[in-house]
TrEMBL record, chain A:
GO molecular-function terms, A-Z: NADH dehydrogenase (ubiquinone) activity
Cellular location(s): Cell membrane; Membrane
Bilayer topology term: Multi-pass membrane protein
Single biological process term from Gene Ontology: ATP synthesis coupled electron transport
Primary localisation category: membrane
CC terms in the record's Gene Ontology section: plasma membrane
Biological source species: Nitratireductor aestuarii
Protein name, as recorded: Monovalent cation/H+ antiporter subunit D
Pfam families linked: Proton_antipo_M
Domain NADH:quinone oxidoreductase/Mrp antiporter transmembrane: 136-436
Alphabetized UniProt keyword annotations: Cell membrane, Membrane, Transmembrane, Transmembrane helix
Family note: Belongs to the CPA3 antiporters (TC 2.A.63) subunit D family.
UniProt superkingdom: Bacteria
Automatic annotation (TrEMBL), chain B:
Gene Ontology cellular component terms for the protein in this record: plasma membrane
Origin organism lineage: Bacteria, Pseudomonadati, Pseudomonadota, Alphaproteobacteria, Hyphomicrobiales
Protein name per the record: Na+/H+ antiporter subunit C
Key words, A-Z: Cell membrane, Membrane, Transmembrane, Transmembrane helix
Membrane topology according to the record: Multi-pass membrane protein
Membrane-crossing residue ranges in chain numbering: 6-21, 28-51, 75-97
Stored InterPro entries: CPA3_antiporter_subunitC (IPR050601), NUOK/Mnh_C1-like (IPR039428)
Organism of provenance: Nitratireductor aestuarii
Length: 544, 114
């Protein structure tokens, strides 16, 4: 049944755990060794996740995808705590690994030296992320969330300094409070259904009587609030732009996927608990998610327009991306979900690249310069500044600036969702699914989502162009940042991935369509988990 | 017993939320601790309240589940206690770092202007 080796499924959790624990043994001075081990671990994670993705997409009978279940401790299902691999979780695993490797390589240039235990914290966070994507059990989801959060608390403080400690503390308090909400929600759901297995919950949610249904729904709503805090949904997101802007660049780059964990869980749980199997609870909370998504897009769009520093601009772009995804989750339609998944991948990669790029651009610049630039714009140009700029005309643009400028331009295209890159294709896929002429009719919410999508893209375009003009065409100081190859290569690699996604948009979109189909009709997922077969005893009495 | 337990949870949550909204880091950490105690009691209560009911069944004998307490919430509480203990310790370190760097125990890192 299950292709061997079955145990590969747990590798994305074990690889970073083992590597992270191993690195604790070494002193900070043995940097080269630590770098090598971490790079190898990240590369191994990438290889394993791609293998798992292929298996989830084309494995199984008939080659049309399959759901793999790993019963921890070989207890019978559904009692066993399980790991479940389907298309969505394998996609998230690949995305994590794709972000992890460049972020880490970027960090090797200088940022890992800014504090202690960077490697281990980084790897433990990856372990938490992978675990959260793989687990099929609500309480284990909490545990993996705590693992990734605990590591992220360390990472956000990496490099220390007043700003990081201040915003990091806010980040920690908010997330601790959110974790408590998470526990309350889980406990309420458990009290009414008596299980924490997501697949079993999906079945039981539809069978609740009128007395227990409201309590389970309230539990799910509290759980939803906890995930919305983590996803950075308005009005629970005031901590996010500051914390992300304060974190060091490679950390911010990997944090780009942190908000997506919240979105991932919301997507998976709403469609499992309140999908087609839910009976009376079908579609519970969808309007609210949709509305919260729209408001987040609006807040993020205002934020990018108002941002004076590049770091905050990127932070607000995270919010736009989260809001768009949440609104798509609330919209709850196969085609839109497929487009949203494509958007999730491209926007996460582009924001991650942007965070690293910003650090390179701002290097050697006075952080106050950007603030000054926007303020100048607001109050009219100063003639003195014009004069300085004219003197700059005669200088040839050095190569570093060309590379940075082109990368920044690509990021702009990606964030604004302009053609020809993948973000445009993703938004187009969402829009075309909303206004499908073959569908029964166009919902009024489609007009809202479409206008917000286009508006947020426009706002990003304005903000990014303004920032780009200020950084590359009219720098107040003519300082050219010194950029190492290992720093620009990760950015380029991430941007190349989006170019690759654009070229391979057909297969990618087919994969997303299949994923969305699985999510909206979770029968295969539920059946696979509930009917999971225990591993047979091996010849010597052990487990094969 | 139900009344007593719900009162205890309610008072802990109320004090915890109030402290969480205070501007001093020490108050915030106390608030988080009280809230986590309340949540732990709440999780424990979701297994329903039993007196003298063991959570572990014996092997090989006929069992009536009504005589046993639900073991899952107890396991969950144990995990939650450990995790909240660890995060509180971690937050204490950040609190001290913030106090050392900014010279104030205000959550914003500076005293409000009066």
């Amino acid at each position: 049944m299950i292709p061997s080796p079955t145990h590969l499924l747990i590798a994305p959790i074990l690889i970073p755990l083992a590597a992270g624990a191993l690195l604790l043994m070494f002193d900070e001075r043995e940097r080269r060794l630590k770098d090598t081990i971490t790079t190898v671990a990240c590369a191994a994670m990438l290889a394993v996740s791609i293998l798992l993705l292929g298996r989830a997409h084309t494995g199984g009978p008939g080659g049309d995808g399959s759901v793999y279940v790993y019963l921890l401790g070989n207890w019978p299902s559904p009692i066993a705590i399980n790991l479940v691999l389907d298309r969505l979780s394998s996609m998230m695993l690949v995305l994590t690994a794709v972000l992890a490797l460049p972020s880490f390589i970027f960090a090797t240039a200088r940022w890992e030296k800014a504090g202690t235990h960077f490697h281990s914290l980084f790897l433990f966070m990856l372990m938490g992320l992978n675990g959260a994507f793989l687990t099929g059990d609500l309480f284990n989801l909490f545990v993996f969330f705590e693992v990734l959060l605990a590591a992220s608390y360390g990472l956000v403080l990496h490099g220390s300094g007043a700003a990081r400690v201040k915003w990091g503390m806010h980040y920690i308090v908010i997330n601790l409070a959110a974790s408590l909400l998470f526990l309350i929600g889980v406990a309420m759901i458990y009290s009414e259904t008596g299980t924490l297995n997501m697949a079993q919950l999906a079945v039981l949610m539809g069978q609740l009587d009128t007395q227990s249904r409201p309590i389970a729904e309230a539990g799910a709503a509290i759980l939803g609030v906890a995930f919305m805090i983590k996803a950075g949904i308005w009005p629970l997101n005031f901590w996010l732009p500051n914390a992300y802007a304060a974190a060091v660049a490679p950390v911010a780059a990997i944090f780009a996927i942190m908000t997506k964990v919240g979105i991932y869980v919301l997507l998976r749980l709403t469609l499992l608990f309140f999908g087609i199997k839910a009976g009376g609870s079908n579609g519970f909370g969808a309007e609210l998610l949709f509305l919260a998504g729209l408001l987040t897009i609006l807040f993020g769009a205002i934020g990018v327009l108002a941002s004076q520093a590049l770091g905050r601009l990127a932070g607000y772009s995270v919010l736009i991306s989260s809001g768009t995804l949440l609104a798509a989750v609330g919209f709850a339609e196969d085609g839109v979900t497929a487009g949203a998944l494509f958007y999730l991948v491209t926007s996460t990669i582009s924001i991650s690249a942007l965070f690293m790029l910003i650090e390179l651009i701002e290097r050697g610049q006075d952080p106050a310069a950007n603030v000054l630039a926007v303020t100048l714009e607001a109050f009219g140009e100063d003639s003195e500044i014009e004069e300085i700029n004219e003197n700059e005309v005669g200088l040839a643009i050095p190569e570093t600036l060309v590379v940075l400028g082109i990368s920044f331009g690509i990021c702009t295209l990606l964030l604004a969702g302009l053609p020809p890159l993948s973000a445009f294709l993703a938004k187009f896929a969402m829009l075309s699914a909303m206004f499908d002429p073959e569908a029964s009719g166009i919902r009024s919410s489609a007009w809202w989502l479409a206008s917000f999508l286009i508006f947020s893209g426009f706002a990003s375009l304005i903000a990014m162009s303004r920032a780009g003009i200020r950084s590359f065409w009219a720098p107040l100081e003519g300082v050219v940042p010194r950029v190492l190859l290992v720093e620009i290569a990760p950015v380029a690699a991430l941007l190349l991935v989006t170019v690759g996604l654009t070229v391979a948009a057909g297969p990618a979109m087919r994969f997303m369509d299949a994923t969305a189909g699985d999510l909206h009709k979770p029968n295969a997922y539920i059946d696979a988990v509930l009917n999971a077969v225990q591993a047979a005893p091996g010849p010597r009495g052990g487990i094969r | 017993m139900e009344l007593l337990l719900s009162l205890a949870i309610g008072i802990l949550v109320a004090s915890g939320v109030w402290l969480l909204l205070r501007p001093r880091t020490y108050q915030v950490i106390m608030g988080l601790s009280l809230l986590s105690y309340a949540v732990n009691l709440f999780i424990f209560a979701t297994g329903r309240l039993y007196i003298g009911g063991p959570p572990v069944v014996e092997k090989g004998i006929e069992i009536n589940p009504a005589n046993y307490a639900d073991p899952v919430p107890q396991a969950l509480v144990l995990t939650a206690i450990v995790i909240s203990f660890a995060t509180t310790a971690l937050f204490l370190v950040v609190l001290l770092a913030s106090r050392g760097i900014t010279g104030t125990d205000h959550v914003d890192g500076r005293e409000p202007e009066r």
